[in-house]
Amino acid sequence: MSLSDIEVAAAAAKAGAKAIHAGFGNPQQVELKGPVDLVTETDRATEAIVIEVLERERPQDGIRAEEGTERSGSRTWVVDPIDGTTNFVHAVPHCCSTLALLDEGEIIAGATANPFTDELFLAARGEGAWLESGGLRRKLSVSKNTEFVNGMFVTGFPYNREGAGYQRIASTWDKLSSISRATRRTGSAALDIAYVAAGRYDGYVVSGAKVWDIAAGILMVVEAGGCICDLTGDVWGIDSAGCIASNGMLHDSLLELVLEG
Ligand code: 2AM
Ligand code: CA
């Protein structure tokens, strides 16, 4: 019997997480893709393992993966083998393997696996979002918080420190820090946004993240009852320069804060 899209996503993300775990803490050949943008041999090895699952289960689908795998098809899997590579390189156990399936620009399934917590976040369009852990799957819901002062927020800074995007996130971080319970910068976009879906964070603001970093999480947030837009308040699209994800109730206020600059 063939697996459903969400089960293919789950299997591929779990295989990726296993490969991250195997490489974690080992000496790595680190290369620079930009002044602070890193890639290791484990990024490439993990990508090969995730792609192997997709090629076996969905040979007809296309692929766009961060470390270079490209294949055309009517639907496309976007893949980040290690999201949070800088944490990985520094042996900080906060990174994951994430992928999502796009059909005509729409995200229809996604999965994000954290090898260090044994947590697998999943979503399927119109069906819901789940967290699988300890052999159990439970449905995800965003937080119900309506007040910044009771909330925890997370931000993602772009690698390019010279651009307007960096300034926007810096000033958002500054404002959120003064009005919320706590503000974080964790270095893993895919885990940050999955945590919004899980109700752990109340909102996430990022500039510079790529489609493969956040596509799975965007579907998780929507399916868990939250809201998504780009950094101007428009509908998020796969080429958007940034994203705001929230529990919905705080969305307009969070957008206002970002737009103030
Ligand atoms: P990566 O680890 O796969 O590179 C760090 O801010 C987080 O954002 C990581 O999840 C990182 O993914 C992601 N990211 C990817 N491209 C980025 C970019 N150009 N600027 C900032 N963050 C980026
Ligand atoms: Ca990556």
Give the overall silhouette.
globular
Number of contiguous helices:
7
Total strands: 15
Mean pLDDT: 97
Kindly, what is the distance between the CA atoms of the first and last residues, rounded to a whole number of angstroms?
A: 52 Å
* Secondary-structure content class: alpha+beta
Secondary-structure element string: HEEHEEEHEEEEEEHEHEHEEH
Order of strands across the biggest sheet? 4-3-5-6-7-8-9-10
- Main beta sheet: 8 strands, mixed
The kinds of small molecule bound in this structure are: adenosine-2'-monophosphate, calcium ion
* Percentage of residues in DSSP E strands: 25-35%
Low-confidence parts, pLDDT < 50 over ≥5 residues? none
Structural features, described:
- This protein is an alpha+beta fold and 261 residues long.
- Helices cover 34% and strands 29% of the residues.
- It contains seven helices and 15 strands.
- Bound molecules: adenosine-2'-monophosphate (2AM) and calcium ion.
- The site of calcium ion has 6 residues, from strand 5.
Summary of the model, kept short:
It contains seven helices and 15 strands.
Task: Name the descriptors.
eight-stranded mixed sheet; 7 helices; binds adenosine-2'-monophosphate; single chain; alpha+beta; 261 residues; globular; five-stranded mixed sheet
